[in-house]
Specification:
Number of helices: 18
Helix content: 25-40%
Bound molecules: glutamine
Structural class: alpha/beta
CATH topology of the largest domain: Rossmann fold
Number of strands: 25
Distance between the termini: 52 Å
Shape: globular
Largest sheet: 9 strands, mixed
Length: 544
């Protein structure tokens, strides 16, 4: 039966709760345990799908088509365990299900309340489908003390009480700040944060203390004394240069040992951390560097491109090079061709990522043109592929009015609204006036790769499955004209209806894909497209 580790955060946000949870999971996995990670998010949106990437960061899409928090991306990258809809619950989704049940009459005349109905639903979500696991790590979003996370805290308090200490553990991540004027580390914020947790009935057994310098033994003891934990369970979490070093650091500080000790499991012997050591050594000792320009709209918040940044780094691991990212706001190119030339001259690869809406598209199209004409390796992802098709239609086929219907009616809709598609043998239907939430073409879909294409060589196989998140689609009716102009449709949906991949055979490396390969890349298994793209950038930089 699964044991549950609940991870809360205190003092401030952005301390790295998601990475901490993922790191502990990776270390337990390296000891041979079967793990799964889950996230509870206190906001009222049913999922982050309708939120701006500038507010929330990236939306991570699972194979089963759920739009989830970006922490689930860390979970997958650190453990290789594919997440599903069952692994991310928001307050909105919990309430939506309870209210739907109320409308159906499921509560048989009873008054529906936060306790027990909302808390029961949360407990049910946490425990669903966990029987075959050794550990379930549940991260609670937000910071202790927030009004909106109270039902989640109450639910995990109840659940831990029901499961008992042999099956539950509370871990709390706090900040131990250094105050320069006093020349001291301060433990008071940690004490207050634990007090706040105690106020809702939760006594953490392990404290992870984020700090920018080593925490002296004395301070550790002080924290232990005031917060009712063993000194060995006060685990320093020092800043480090790469997130992939975090599992090694937590292990060195004894985190996994303390967790196993709590559950009365043997903590002798060492986990096999070799793959983490290899990744860290590749990051710290690169044999060269390439520069990739990422031309997008949300460059003001890099969390909006979390998986993309990681996947590009993974591509670098495959060639032992550091991939330096030059984040370019596509609007800077709208001043004219000269701007694009000045900014993109000298980069070794250009990537246009996913995106929504017309703003900034002129600049993205300029970036595509630069890459095509100058033969710079190009990678277009989702919206980036659509931009590549519009660029080809306008500049090679000569359809000046070519555009996407996402921006309104146009003379040549080379990218158009997708109203019907196949999932396996099932038809899915949408229309222009339907809901925006959860209604895109979402999750894993298959594609068939054309013989003798670059993309088939990159994957080394003919059939693939990748995750999608889009509402518009390259219009297959323009295929003949675009192919005659040189843009090959090298990957199609199995029924041959939906263009999945385009490429230019007479270009060193130019691929546009309708899906999001960055979501499936792992540090120890770089995605073939990212490895291929960075490889092309390495050749462009003449490093080989
Ligand atoms: N806006 C485009 C669409 O909905 C692309 C989406 C994306 O890049 N994820 O089709």
């Amino acid at each position: 039966m699964a044991r549950f580790v609940f991870i809360t955060g205190g003092v401030v946000s952005s301390l790295g709760k998601g990475i901490a949870a993922a790191s502990l999971a990776a270390t337990l996995q390296a000891r041979g345990y079967k793990v799964r990670l889950r996230k509870l998010d206190p906001y009222l949106n049913v999922d982050p799908g309708t939120m701006s990437p500038l507010q929330h960061g990236e939306v991570f899409v699972t194979d089963d088509g759920a739009e989830t928090d970006l922490d689930l991306g860390h979970y997958e990258r650190f453990t290789g365990v594919h997440a599903s809809k069952a692994d991310n619950w928001t307050t909105g989704r919990i309430y939506a299900e309870v209210i739907a049940a109320e409308r159906r009459g499921d509560y048989l005349g009873g008054t529906v309340q936060v306790i027990p109905h909302i808390t029961d639903k949360i407990k049910e979500g946490i425990q669903a489908d966990t029987d075959s696991l050794d550990f379930v790590l549940v991260e609670i979003g937000g910071t202790v003390g927030d009004i909106e996370s109270l039902p989640f805290l109450e639910a995990i308090r109840q659940l831990a009480n029901e499961l008992g200490p042999t099956r539950s553990l509370f871990m709390h991540l706090t900040l131990v700040p250094y105050i320069p004027a006093a020349g001291e580390l301060k433990t008071k914020p940690t004490q207050h944060s634990v007090k706040e947790l105690l106020g809702v009935g939760i006594q953490p057994q392990i404290l992870l203390c984020r700090c920018d310098r080593p925490i002296p033994e004395n301070e550790r003891k002080k924290i232990a004394l005031f917060c009712n934990v063993r000194p060995e369970s006060v685990i320093p979490a020092l800043d480090c240069s790469t997130i992939y070093e975090v599992p090694l650091n937590y292990h060195n500080e004894g985190l996994d040992r303390e967790v196993l000790r709590h559950f009365n499991l043997s903590f002798y012997g060492e986990p096999d951390m070799r793959r983490w050591e290899r990744v860290v050594s590749s990051i710290k000792n690169p044999e060269g560097e390439v520069t990739v320009a990422v031309v997008g709209k949300y460059t003001g918040l890099l969390d909006a491109y979390k998986s993309l940044g990681e996947a590009l780094a993974h591509g670098g691991f495959a060639h032992n090079v550091k991939v330096k990212l030059d984040w370019v706001d596509s609007e800077v190119f709208e001043a004219g061709e000269g701007e694009a030339v000045a900014r993109l001259e000298g980069v070794h690869g250009i990537l246009v990522p996913g995106g929504f809406g017309e703003r900034g598209t002129g600049g993205k199209i300029e970036a595509v043109r630069f890459a095509r004409e100058r033969k710079v390796p190009f990678f277009g992802i989702c919206f980036g592929m659509q931009m590549a098709v519009i660029e080809a239609a306008r500049n090679l086929v000569g359809l000046k009015g070519a555009s996407s219907t996402e921006f309104g009616p146009c003379a040549d809709p080379v990218v158009g609204l997708l109203t019907e598609w196949l999932r396996g043998n099932q038809v899915e239907r949408r229309n222009a006036s339907g809901d925006l939430g959860g209604t895109m073409r979402l999750g894993a879909y298959a594609a068939h790769l054309a013989e003798d294409s670059l993309v088939r060589a990159v994957y080394g196989q003919a059939d693939i499955e990748e995750r999608h998140r889009h509402r518009y689609e390259v219009n297959v009716n323009y295929r003949e004209r675009l192919e005659a102009a040189g843009l090959r449709f090298s990957g199609m949906s199995p029924d041959g209806e939906l263009p999945e991949i385009v490429e230019y055979p007479d270009h060193p490396w130019f691929i546009g894909v309708q899906f999001h390969p960055e979501l499936k890349s792992k540090p120890f298994a770089p995605h073939p497209l990212f490895a291929g793209f960075v490889g092309a950038a390495v050749r462009q930089a003449r490093l080989v």
